[in-house]
Predict the 3D structure of the following.
Amino acid sequence: MNQPKLDLSPKVSDEIRKTTCYMCACRCGINVHLKEGKVAYIEGNRDHPVNKGVLCAKGSAGIMQHNAPSRLKSPLKRVGPRGSGEFEEISWDEAYQIAADWLEPIRKDNPEKLAFFTGRDQSQSFTSLWAQAFGTPNYAAHGGFCSVNMAAAGIYTMGGAFWEFGQPDWDHTKLFMLFGVAEDHDSNPIKMGIGKIKGRGARVIGVNPIRTGYNAVADDWVGITPGTDGLFILSMIHCLMKAGKMDLHYLAQYTDAPVLVNNDEKSPEYGLYLRDESGKQLVVDRVTGKLTAYDKPGVKPDLSATHRAKGVTHRPVFHQMAEMYLSDEYAPEAVAERCGIPAKRIRAIAAELARVAFDEAFELDHAWTDFRGEKHKTMTGRPVSFHAMRGISAHANGFQTCRALHTLQIILGTVEVPGGFRFKPPYPKPATAHPKPHVGMTPGAPLNGPHLGFVHGPDDLALKDDGTPARIDKAFTWENPMSSHGLMHMVISNAHAGDPYKIDTLFMYMANMSWNSSMNTGGVMEMLTDKDENGDYVIPHIIYSDAYSSEMVAYSDLILPDTTYLERHDCISLLDRPICEADAAADAIRWPVVEPDRNVKGFQSALCDLGAKLGLPGFVNEDGTQKYADYADYIINHERRPGIGPLAGWRMGEKGLQSGRGGVNEGQIDNYIENGGFFVEHIPDGATYYKPWNMKYQEWAVGMGLFDSPQPYLFSLYVEPMRKFQLAAEGHGERQPPGHLRERIKETMSPLPIWYETDQQGNEGYTINALTQRPMAMYHSWGSQNAWLRQLHGHNPLYLPTKLMRQNDLSDGDWARVSSPHGEITVPVMEMAALNENTVWTWNAIGKRKGAWALDTDAPEATKGFLLNHLIHELLPPKADGMRWANSDPITGQAAWFDLKVRIEKTEAPKESRPEYPPIESPVGKGPDKLAWKVGK
C-alpha cells in the first residue's frame, strides 16, 4: 500500500508561556505558544480559575492585536496642527524632558492645572497613586462614562455589585435573570455559567430591548422599553410585597429593614437613622421589646415595632418600604404601557421569581456563626440569581434603577446565599469601608488623600472654600454628589470652557476621547483644536499614551507609546480589580512573553521614569534617585501598607512564603510565572456564603489583608447619605446646594429606590430610542483594527425593528438619515425582528476615522461604519431658563449614553456614511494590503 505520510500531530510551538489575556475585561488565563521567539498560537489555560481553558474569538485573535500594523513605534512630538496627525519621532529622554518642562512648573505653583485621566486599563491603584503624588485633585478612570451607576449603587446598597464584584452561584441557581447585559464584558465566565445551569435545566430570563448574545439563548426574552427597567423592577417588588413573598427573616437579620428612622417632618434629623452614642443603628428587639444596637448578641430585630422618644416617632425602614412600594403607582397595570411589558407578564415573572426562591429553597449542611454570635447548623439556599450591566446603568435614572434591582434581590433573600448572587473578594465591602474623596492641595506636595471614594453627606463634597468645584470634572459636587468614579466625559468640555477653571496639561492614557469615547464627537475635536485670541490652544498641552495609532493620537502634542499586552508587566491586583471568584481570592500578572521590537515602554513603567524625573514622593529614594526601575520593580517592592503589596501571592513570612500579608519577595513575579501567571487562595469551608455576616469569612479576610479587622455590616435598603443631601436641599445644615439644584436633589435622591423619567427637555419630535452594544468579538476600539476580528464586524448597520422599517419604507441595505436635537448621521440600515418596536441600535466603536489605526482610507469601518456618538451631546438641550445641564445621572454623574432619542428618514444612498471627516495623517503609515501571519517553517 502506498499511503501518504501525514503528520497528525504537527509541532505547534517551541515553547509555551502562560500569562493573562487583555482582549476584554475577563482577564482569562492564556497559553502563548512561541515558535522561533514569535507568537504562533494562543489558547486558554485549563488551570486558570477564571476561564478553565475556555477562550473566545477575541482571546485567540490576540496574535493579531500584538502584530497590528497600527502599533506605535516610538515617542512622538507633534509638528503639525493638532488633529493633522503630523509627528516626528523622538527619544524617550526628549519625551520625558518635554513632559517635565510642562509639568514641573504647574506642580510647583498650581497642581490642579494637571488633569490626569486614564481609560480602560487595570492599574488604577497605581495611576491614582502617581496622580496623588503629583498633587493634582484631577484624576479618574473611565468608570464615570461606563459603569459607575452599577458599582456605586451596589456598594452603597449592599457592599458590592455585579460584574467584577460578584457572580451568580452557578452550581445551585435555578433561575437566572439578566438586565441590560451585552456580550462584550465578562463573556467567558457568563457563557460557561449559562451552559452549566442550562445543562441542569435552569431557566434564563433576559431583559434587554435587543435580543442578541445571552438574551438570544434565554428561555424568555423581555424586550423592555429603554430606561424603564427600574419601573419594571419596582413593579415586581410591588407584586412580591403585596403577595407577602419576602424573606422576612433575612430582612430582619441582615439588612436595615428593622432599623428605626426619624419620622418627624419638622425635625432637622427627619429621615435619619436612630443611633446609639457610638453611632450604631438601633432596632427594637422582638423578644424584649427594648431598643438595642443592631449587632447586640442575641438580638432579634423587629420589622414592625416603632419607637417614640422625646416626642418623635421612629419607624423601621420596612414600614417606609411598604408604604412606598405598595402604592398603586407601582402596580403592573400602572407601569405596563411605559415599560412595554403587559401587566400580566410582569405579574407572571414576579410570581416565577417567588416560586423558585421559596418553593425550591434548599439547605446546605454547612455550619456557620454570624456576627451576633448565633450559631447556624445549615445555610438556606434560594436558587434565584441576577446579573446586570451597562444597559440599565447608562441612563440618567441608572443609579436608582441599579439600587432597585439590588432591593429586589435582597427582599427575596438571594444575596450571598446558596443559589443566589455571591460576592468576589475583596468584596463585600460597604461604602463606609472605602475612603472619602480628597482634594486638599499643597503646591509641590502630594494630595492629602485618594481622589475617589464614597461620600456620606454634604460635608464630604469636593468643594473649594468658596463653594465652587475643586475638580475639573465637577465630581462630588451638588450637580452629582455621589460620583464615585469621576466624570471623564466632562473633562475636555469643562477644560475648554474654563469651568470651573482653566487647566494647563491634559494627560490621558488609552482614552479615545476624540472619537468613540466621547459624546459630541465633532464638538470635542473642535475643543481640542480651538485657539484663544492669542493664537494659543485653549488646552495648552496634551500628553497621550496608547499602544496604537488611535484617533486621539492625532489630537495630542506628545505621545508616549505603550506596548501590547504580551510585551509588558501588568498587575491585576486585589488593590484594584482582581480576577477573584466567589470561592477564592485571586490575582494575576502579565509579563513580557515577548520583547518589543519597537522603541516603546509599558505606560506604567514610563510613569515610574517620569515620576522619578519630577521627584515625586514615593517615586524617588531619599537621595533623589529613581525608586522603581520599572513597573515590575514597583509590583514587587511597593507596599500600600505594611505587609500589603500589589500582589497577594508568595509574600515573605517568618517561616517562608505565605499568602495575603507578608514582606517583599524579590522572586515574587517568578513565582507567578511558574504558576501560570496567577495566584489563588480558596475561602475555607463554611465561609463561602453569608460573607458580610459570617465571622469565619471575616476573620479569613483579615488574614488575607482585605481589611484590618472584621467589618460585618447591614445591607442598606435605605441609603442614609442620600437623605442627608435631601435635608440640605430642604434647608438644613451649613453646607447648602445652589437654588437651581434644590428641587432636583429632593426629587432624585430618595434614600429608598425610586424611578423617574429621564430629562427629555428639547426632544420634541425625536421619539425613537437609539442604543449601542459591543459585539462579543470586539472590545472598545481595539477589536475593529484586528485583522481577524474585522472579518466578523467590518462595518455596522443600524438595526431597525420591523415596525419602523415598514413605517419608513425601508429595506435591508437602504440608507437613512438619523437625527437628534444635537446632530445627524446618514447610515445603512437592516431589519431585526427581535427588537423593542420603538428602538434602533448598532454595534459600538466599529466606525473609524480615516487615517487612524493604519487602516486604508476606503476601509469599510471608515466608509460604512459609523458612531451614534455624533448624535449625543455631553449637555442636555437648553431648558426654558437657558441652562444646559450635563447629560448624566444627577446622582453619580454617569454619562447617560442610552437616553438618546432620534428621528429616522429614508434617504438616497451616499457614497459613504456621514458625517465625513477628512483623513488624518498616520504616524505609523498604512498597513499592508494583505496581512498574513505565519511563524516558523
The chain has 24 helices and 36 strands.
